[in-house]
Amino acid sequence: MTRAVLSIGSNIGDSLGHLRSVTEQLGSRVVACSPVYRSAPWGGVEQQDFLNAVVVAADDAYDAWDWLRMGQGLEEAADRVRVQHWGPRSLDVDVVACDDLVSDDPRLILPHPRAHERAFVLLPWLDIEPDATLRVGDRDVPVPELLKRLSPQERAGVVKQEWSLRERPDKQDEITGESSW
C-alpha cells in the first residue's frame, strides 16, 4: 500500500468545487482531508488568492507515479492550462510525499522540493497529521518545526476557512462568487 500526501489548490473558476473534485475522485482512498485555507499567491505572479487543502490518500495498487498521473488527470479534467510558472490555475495537485520514497527524477521529485517552505502546505497538513514529518535534506523534520522556520508573514498569510471538502457549503465561494453546488 502506498500512502500519499497531496497538496491541492485553486484560484480560477469554482475553486472550492475544483478542490472537492479531488476528494470525490479519490473516494475511498481518502484517509484524511484538511480544512480549506485561503492563501496569497506564492511566487511573485500577480493574481487572486488561492484556496488550498491537503489530502492524505492510500491505495494498495498505487505507487508514486500513479498518484502523479492521477493528479495530472484531475488537473486536466478541471481544464488546467499551464501558461505561466506559478501562475493562476483552476486546479493544482502536487504529490508532497509518498511513503518514505525519495526521488530526484525531474518529473517526480519527492518529497516535494519546496513543501517545507510553504505554509499553505504545512498548516493544512498539520491539521490532519499533528505528528507529520517531512524529509528535508538528509533528515525527517517535524512539520511544526518547519512551520516555526517560516516567517510570521508567510504563516499569517494562510487563513483557515469555514469550508470542508466533505460537507455542503452554507455560502458561496468568496473568490468567485459562485456556489459549488
Question: Could you give the topology of this structure?
Answer:
Elements (H helix, E strand, L loop, with lengths): L1 E9 L4 H12 L3 E4 L3 E3 L10 E10 L4 H14 L14 E7 L4 E3 L2 E3 L8 H10 L4 E4 L2 E4 H7 L2 H5 L1 E3 L21
What does this structure look like?
Helix content is 27%, strand content 28%. It is an alpha+beta fold and 181 residues long. The strands form 3 sheets. Strands 1, 2, 3, 4, 5 and 10 form a 6-stranded antiparallel sheet that branches. Strand 6 (103-105) and strand 7 form a beta hairpin. Helix 3 (119-128) runs antiparallel to helix 4 (143-149). It is globular, with a radius of gyration of 15 Å. The model is unreliable at 168-181 (pLDDT under 50).
Apparent shape: globular
- Class derived from helix and strand content: alpha+beta
Mean pLDDT: 88
The ordered H/E elements are EHEEEHEEEHEEHHE
Estimate what percentage of residues fall within beta strands: 25-35%
Give the termini separation: 33 Å
From the structure above, extract its key features.
181 residues, alpha+beta, two-stranded antiparallel ribbon, 27% helix, disordered C terminus
Gist?
The chain has 181 residues and is an alpha+beta fold. Helices cover 27% and strands 28% of the residues. It is built from 5 helices and 10 strands.
